[in-house]
Amino acid sequence: MRNLLRHQSFQVNLHAWLLLLPSLIFLSLFTFYPIISTVWLSFFRLDLSTPSAVFNGIGNYQRLLEDAIFIKTLKNNLWFAAGTIPASMGLGMVMALALNKAMVGRSWLRTFVFYPTVIPMIAIANIWMFLYTPEYGLLNQVLGLAGVGRINWLGSPGTVMWAMIAMTVWKESGFYMIFYLAGLQNIPRELYEAAEMDGAPGISVFRHITFPLLMPTHLFVFIISLTNAFKLVDHLVIMTQGGPNNASNLLLYYIYETAFNYWNQGYASALTVVMLTIMLTIAAIQFFTTDRKIHYS
C-alpha cells in the first residue's frame, strides 16, 4: 500500500514538473542565465582596448565609486523613482475610487483613462516633446496666456527631471488604476453597508476599510512601479538623451551607453548588477515590512 502511494505521488509530481518544464526552460534561458553571466562578466575587463576578457576582480566596482556620471545617474534614478512611484500609485488609486462608482459612461471613462498605457513610450515621448517645446509648445502657449515667460522644460537642468516625472505619471497611473479597480471589487460590500448603518464618515471608511484591504494591491503595484522607474528609458532616446549635462540621465540609459556606445561590457555588467541589487533591496524591504500589515482575506 505504501509503495502504491509513493508511486502515485511520484506520478503526480512528475506530471507537475513536466507541465512546468517549458516555463523553466524559458526562465533558465532568458532570466537565470543572463543574470549569472552578467554577474560573472562584471569581474572582467572587456572593452575596446581589451577585446578578450581579462579578469579584473572588483576593479569595475571600485571604479563605480569614482565615476561621477554613475553617482549622478543613480541620484537621478532615485529621485525619479521617488517622484513617479507615489504620484502614479496615488493618482491610480484616486481614479479607481472615482470610476468604481456607478455613473453614466463609466466604461468610456475607464477606457479614456487607461488609453495612455497602450501607447508606446516612443510615441508618448514625441507627443510630450511637442508639449514641452519652448517656442511653440502647447504648455508654453498656455503659460504665455497667463503672463508667464517661456520655459525650456527639456533644456534646463532644473526642470527636465520634473518634466520626465510628469510625463511618466500621466502614462503609468491608468495602468495602476486597473489593479486598484480589481482590488476594490474584491472588498466585501457588507463592510461598507455596516459602516453606512453606523453612520461612519467617508474618510473613516477609506481609512479603516478601503485602504487597509487594498494593502495586497499596494504592494503589488509598488513592485511594478519600482521596476518601471528603473527600466523606462525609451523617452530619453527621443527627448533628451540624458541631457542637459546628465540632468535627466537614468541608470539603465547609462548602462546602455556604456555597453553599446562605448562598448565597455565589463563595466556595464557591474552597473547592471548594482541596479538589480538596489531594486531587489528596496523591494525586499518593502515586502517584509509591509507583509505583516496585509489582509489577504
From TrEMBL:
Gene3D superfamilies in the cross-refs: MetI-like
Family: Belongs to the binding-protein-dependent transport system permease family.
InterPro entries: ABC_transporter_permease, MetI-like, MetI-like_sf
Compartments where located: Cell membrane
Primary location: membrane
All residue ranges annotated as the ABC transmembrane type-1 domain in the record: 74-284
Membrane topology: Multi-pass membrane protein
Source organism superkingdom: Bacteria
GO process annotations (BP): transmembrane transport
Entries under PROSITE patterns matching the protein: ABC_TM1
Protein name stated in the entry: Carbohydrate ABC transporter membrane protein 1, CUT1 family
Keyword set, alphabetical order: Cell membrane, Membrane, Transmembrane, Transmembrane helix, Transport
GO CC annotation terms, alphabetical: plasma membrane
Lineage summary: Bacteria, Bacillati, Bacillota, Clostridia, Eubacteriales
Transmembrane segments: 12-36, 78-100, 112-131, 211-230, 267-288
